[in-house]
């Protein structure tokens, strides 16, 4: 029953993060940007200021709540872009083979050789900071694993009888890929996608930490960490709470990914004996 | 042959843990094999024939376990032996060959090494001596140029050659019983003939008994002196092999014999519609009540649906498990 | 060269033939070593002629590596032949890139061996049967539903079962679904590739009977590929025996099974265990030769007990057709038949 625990804890953490992001206007105590009040600067956590306040007197709790929106948007959308690119390239490469497979393979190896964060940094440097740039940078740099998995699945599924049967029945290539191959490789792709979201949330934090993410003053967990680094000794709560939010979200996504792997893996489903 | 049989299985029950409870994957399995005898266990997938073999050799693993009954080898109960004693028994006295030799052989070790290992492990030979014996063993299973072949890896050999190597490993220590689980199912017919003849001759020379497990009643009837037919976890008929083929007594066996197109029958009798056995093979978790063959049996009556038939011992030897056997 | 051995007789109309394969060769180049060692050629099929008449069942027999599956894939247009010409119902089969793919799909279909791997686990039976109709331009919903329901009844399933997934069916039922899928486009030829060998023994008769029934009711022609000679004898009208990429014998089923002329055909039949006797199985000696390095002369010569010098010399024997249409690729078939008959007489008389 350990399998289910992964799924339940991971799913709950992720769902909680999404809920927080969606309900931010109702959950937040103050406006995360406008309600600066130097009178309240650097208050430690208390009943009034749950997570304390920053040097401009903004409520950290409210900023963490609103920060969920940026972090999750980046995590989900950039991973979706990655999945679409990876599946399209990998599936077609595995299905068609030949020169196209060689091209995709070379491209994948290239992507794997360059650290994706450095690549994203380079893209951000060209596009300039901002949410859209962040989505593009992270969405273009992390598809190689998805691509590998999709290609390997397509290669092994291609020789299955039902794929041959579809060819014999006169199905077009696109139809075969979408109706015969794709549904049968979704399991591992969902797992990779979930894990990828976690790493996108981390990448967003890293880029924002380096000042390349969402423009201040609007909060994201990464940019909050970045702003807090000089007060890490004097006001540790400035780092602790956004850090904890990142930690729990990524942990949740990883547990969810593991849990999904366990139930989507055909090996673990009830087998015919 | 009287006296202690080589192997005696009594009322063996094998449990399958489905996660939500235990079901009997096989029950009431009893048979005996004398020294040097050839005995066949025939049935379809899920009938319990292969797990019975695994139980005999102590290789049942979760979710399967022995739920009752006795296995005697030379009169001694072996079902509760320690892992070490079972290991010793395996290979040394009881050996087994499998359907797909590729998965049973170690892919990263030369086949000669794998044969030699048997002599080192079970006979305490030095590696040098064992390597020499391995060449001899390969020659015995009629592998051409054995001194060169010992250095080959399993993937370099054809399916037939691999099964020869498996037989060489199995017979290396001169076991008293060879269990062959679908030994030729993955092979072509001409290669099957070679392997069967090799197995039959080697075992006859050495007095090794054979327990052959297969779905192919015709093959088993040809190889074995006695045959037991299993259906849904129970032995339904056990008799001399020629008798079972000429005049099967259990409706399931009758159905099997009649339903298969036999070479020569069309020329002799014309193309008649094959006699079908209706219905489907029941799943282990859904064995029917009463006689397990009753939903597919044309002769089934009320009692077949409610009560499991007992074993009828036949005067001429053998047994049948059917309410309607007079 | 290879003489077409069973061209339709004179005066017989050519359209009696639904399939003709002429001098088919499929060679696969296998990569040489890294250092550019000579590329090796696998002659999977090398000069095969086959004909199938309307309503006929042609048994295709041979062991692994004989090329029978390669022939099937070529007829289905899934493999591009190196040489030769395949004509199906008047249409020349070319490789899959051609636009005639769909027309071919409406003529030739296949029933696969493994009923588990050959059905898409994520599609219901309905989807599996409806999609091909849509692909082939059937748009009317009622027509699609009617044809699917009728086909399910044809193969012995109930139309209510259409919304289930493959894993909810037993092996035999899955094979029925596989048959329904092969027939849904009303093809004329069905290639049955070991259609019962993956099934439980007690289920096989059901599927064999079903295939024979459908052949008659729907007017189909079959190519029956199997290693089970009992099944082939039961189902086939004519039988072609393949060995190492070539046909070694081809004739009427009765001829093949009662008077096999090629030593390999004899070996195949003799290797089948006799359940009523503990007679040793007739062994042939040796494994199948390496197809990359086929023997000189007759490919069967290293394993044949009748081999003499001429069998090992090039060129190998050609497929010679006797007056009765029985074709054999063996230098000594008549001599051997005579000797065996004499030996049998001697047995009887002594």
TrEMBL record, chain A:
It is found in: Cell membrane. It comes from the Bacteria. Residues 68-257 form the ABC transmembrane type-1 domain. The keyword RNA-binding does not apply. Keywords: Cell membrane, Membrane, Transmembrane, Transmembrane helix, Transport. It is a multi-pass membrane protein. GO terms for cellular component: plasma membrane. The chain crosses the membrane at residues 185-214, 234-256. CDD domains: TM_PBP2. Its main location: membrane. One of its GO terms (biological process) is transmembrane transport. PANTHER family: OLIGOPEPTIDE TRANSPORT SYSTEM PERMEASE PROTEIN APPC, PEPTIDE ABC TRANSPORTER PERMEASE PROTEIN. Belongs to the binding-protein-dependent transport system permease family. This is Peptide ABC transporter permease. It comes from Bradyrhizobium nitroreducens.
TrEMBL record, chain B:
Residues 7-257 form the ABC transporter domain. GO terms for cellular component: plasma membrane. Keywords: ATP-binding, Cell membrane, Membrane, Nucleotide-binding, Transport. It is a peripheral membrane protein. Its main location: membrane. It is found in: Cell inner membrane. GO terms for biological process: peptide transport; transmembrane transport. The keyword Transcription regulation does not apply. InterPro entries: AAA+_ATPase, ABC_Ni/Peptide_Import, ABC_transporter-like_ATP-bd, ABC_transporter-like_CS, Oligopep_ABC_C, P-loop_NTPase. The keyword Nucleotide-binding applies. GO terms for molecular function: ATP binding; ATP hydrolysis activity. Belongs to the ABC transporter superfamily. Involved in beta-(1-->2)glucan export. Transmembrane domains (TMD) form a pore in the inner membrane and the ATP-binding domain (NBD) is responsible for energy generation. NCBIfam families: oligo_HPY (TIGR01727). This is Peptide ABC transporter ATP-binding protein.
TrEMBL record, chain C:
It comes from the Bacteria. This is Glutathione import ATP-binding protein GsiA. GO terms for molecular function: ATP binding; ATP hydrolysis activity. The complex is composed of two ATP-binding proteins (GsiA), two transmembrane proteins (GsiC and GsiD) and a solute-binding protein (GsiB). It comes from Bradyrhizobium nitroreducens. It is found in: Cell inner membrane. Residues 21-269 form the ABC transporter domain. Gene3D superfamilies: P-loop containing nucleotide triphosphate hydrolases (3.40.50.300). Its main location: membrane.
């Amino acid at each position: 029953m350990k399998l289910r625990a992964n799924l339940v804890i991971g799913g709950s953490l992720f769902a909680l993060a999404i809920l927080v992001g969606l309900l931010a206007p109702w959950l937040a105590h103050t406006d995360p940007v406008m309600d600066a009040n130097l009178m309240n600067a650097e208050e430690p956590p208390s009943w009034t200021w749950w997570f304390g306040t920053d040097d401009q007197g903004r409520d950290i709790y409210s900023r963490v709540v609103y920060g969920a929106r940026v972090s999750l948007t980046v995590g989900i959308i950039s991973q979706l872009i990655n999945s679409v690119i990876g599946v399209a390239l990998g599936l077609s490469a595995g299905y068609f083979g030949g020169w196209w497979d060689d091209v995709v393979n070379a491209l994948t190896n290239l992507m794997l050789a360059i650290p994706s964060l450095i690549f994203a940094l380079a893209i951000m440097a060209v596009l300039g900071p901002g949410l859209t740039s962040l989505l593009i940078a992270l969405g273009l740099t992390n598809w190689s694993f998805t691509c590998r998995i999709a290609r390997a699945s397509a290669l092994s599924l291609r020789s299955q009888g039902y794929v041959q049967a579809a060819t014999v029945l006169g199905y077009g290539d696109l139809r075969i890929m979408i109706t015969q191959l794709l549904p049968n490789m979704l399991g591992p792709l969902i797992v990779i996608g979930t894990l990828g979201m976690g790493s996108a949330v981390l990448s967003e934090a890293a880029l924002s930490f380096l000042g390349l993410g969402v423009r201040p003053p609007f909060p994201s967990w990464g940019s909050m960490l970045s702003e807090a680094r000089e007060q890490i000794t004097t006001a540790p709560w400035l780092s602790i709470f956004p850090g904890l939010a990142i930690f729990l979200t990524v942990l949740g996504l990883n547990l969810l990914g593991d849990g999904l792997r366990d139930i989507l893996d055909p090996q673990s489903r009830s087998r015919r004996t | 042959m009287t006296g202690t049989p080589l192997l005696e299985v009594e009322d063996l029950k094998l449990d399958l843990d489905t996660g939500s409870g235990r079901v009997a994957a096989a029950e009431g399995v009893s048979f005996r094999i004398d020294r040097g005898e050839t005995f066949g266990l025939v049935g379809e997938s899920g009938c319990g024939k292969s797990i019975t073999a695994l139980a005999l050799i102590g290789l049942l693993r979760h979710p399967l376990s022995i739920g009752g009954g006795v296995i005697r080898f030379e009169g001694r109960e072996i079902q509760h032996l320690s892992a070490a004693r079972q290991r010793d028994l395996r290979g040394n006295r009881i050996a087994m060959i499998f359907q797909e030799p590729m998965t049973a052989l170690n892919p990263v070790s030369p086949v000669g090494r794998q044969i030699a290992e048997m002599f080192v492990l079970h006979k305490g030979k030095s590696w040098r001596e064992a390597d020499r014996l391995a060449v001899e063993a390969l020659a015995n299973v009629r592998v051409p140029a054995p001194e060169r072949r010992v250095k080959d890896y399993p993937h370099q050999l054809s399916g037939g050659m691999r099964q020869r190597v498996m037989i060489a490993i199995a017979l290396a220590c001169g076991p008293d019983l060879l269990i062959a689980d679908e030994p030729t199912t993955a092979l072509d017919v001409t290669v099957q003939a070679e392997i069967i003849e090799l197995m039959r001759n080697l075992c006859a020379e050495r007095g090794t008994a054979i327990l052959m497990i297969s779905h192919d009643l015709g093959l088993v009837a040809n190889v074995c002196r006695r045959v037991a037919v299993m259906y849904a976890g129970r032995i339904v008929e056990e008799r001399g092999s020629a008798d079972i083929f000429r005049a099967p007594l259990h409706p399931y066996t009758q159905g099997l014999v009649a339903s298969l197109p036999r070479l020569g029958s069309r020329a002799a009798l014309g193309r008649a519609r094959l006699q079908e056995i209706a219905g489907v093979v029941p799943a282990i978790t859904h064995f029917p009540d009463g006689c397990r063959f009753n939903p597919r049996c044309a002769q089934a009556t009320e009692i077949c649906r409610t009560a499991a038939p007992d074993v009828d011992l036949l005067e001429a030897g053998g047994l049948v498990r059917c309410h309607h056997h007079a | 060269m290879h003489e077409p051995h069973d061209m339709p007789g004179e005066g017989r109309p050519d359209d009696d033939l639904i399939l003709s394969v002429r001098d088919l060769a499929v060679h696969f180049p296998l990569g040489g070593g890294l250092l550019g060692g000579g590329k090796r050629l696998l002659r999977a099929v090398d000069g095969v002629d086959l004909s199938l008449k309307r309503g006929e069942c042609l048994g295709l027999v041979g062991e692994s590596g004989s090329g029978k599956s390669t022939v099937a894939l070529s007829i289905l247009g899934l493999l591009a032949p190196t040489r030769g010409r395949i004509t199906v119902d008047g249409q020349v089969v070319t490789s899959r890139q051609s636009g005639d793919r769909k027309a071919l799909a409406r003529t030739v279909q296949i029933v696969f061996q493994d009923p588990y791997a050959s059905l898409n686990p994520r599609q219901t039976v309905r989807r599996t049967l409806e999609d091909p109709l849509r692909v082939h331009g059937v748009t009317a919903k009622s027509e699609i539903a009617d044809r699917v329901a009728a086909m399910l009844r044809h193969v012995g399933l109930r139309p209510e079962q259409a919304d289930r997934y493959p894993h909810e069916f037993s092996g035999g039922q899955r094979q029925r679904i596989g048959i329904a899928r092969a027939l849904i486009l009303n093809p004329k030829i069905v290639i049955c590739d070991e259609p019962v060998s993956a099934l439980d023994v007690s289920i096989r008769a059901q599927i064999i009977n079903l295939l024979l029934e459908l052949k008659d009711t729907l007017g189909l022609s079959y190519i029956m590929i199997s290693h089970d000679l009992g099944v082939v004898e039961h189902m086939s009208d004519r039988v072609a025996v393949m060995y190492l990429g070539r046909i070694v014998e081809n004739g009427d089923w009765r001829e093949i099974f009662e008077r096999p002329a090629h030593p390999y055909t004899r070996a195949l039949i003799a290797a089948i265990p006799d359940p009523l006797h503990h007679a040793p199985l007739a062994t042939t000696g040796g494994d199948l030769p390496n197809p990359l390095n086929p023997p000189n002369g007759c490919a069967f010569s290293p394993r044949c007990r009748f081999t003499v010098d001429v069998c090992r010399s090039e060129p190998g024997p050609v497929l010679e057709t006797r007056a009765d249409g029985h074709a054999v690729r063996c230098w000594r078939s008549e001599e051997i038949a005579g000797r065996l008959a004499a030996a049998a007489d001697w047995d009887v008389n002594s």
